[in-house]
Fold:
Amino acid sequence: MRADAARKREQVVAAAGDELADLGVAARQGAPVHLSLDRVAARAKVGIATLYRHFPTREALLDAVYRHELTRLCDAAPGLAAGAPADEALLTWMNRYLDFVDSKRAMGADLRTMIASGAVTQAETRARLAAAVAHFLAAGTAAGTFRPGVPPDDVVAAMAGAVIAAAPEQQREQTQRLLALLVEGLRPR
Structure:
């Protein structure tokens, strides 16, 4: 792919991610949401034909956005874990995870279709999140901040459970409190 074409593709993916993040906040508040490809193209400062040239279907665009955002979230873990105390770094990363979850709410039925088709798998997502969490657990264990032996997948399951369990009218705030409790539970006894 030519450099200018690759740059335009990245612009579209970034614009779609930003649009989904905005819509995710509205979805969390109960508003109906719909991702407009025309708005994505305008936000990316490309024509709609350019968007469709790179992403012939809505699902192709959403798949690219999902993978890009998951990669960005997981790739941030090593730097965060190395740059701050493990408990603070993990909470910062968990807030980024909540942003990721919010943008996925805006995908709604499209994301469910991608999961049903096998394009996106829960196992792959959980494995990548667990690998990211492992950085924080290792740093925290080495520093004595976290107790040893906590499986990263258990932390990921608890994070997902916090998102699901929080009351809709206070979703973000209650989830943040639940995640803070989770981090406290990682401390040595």
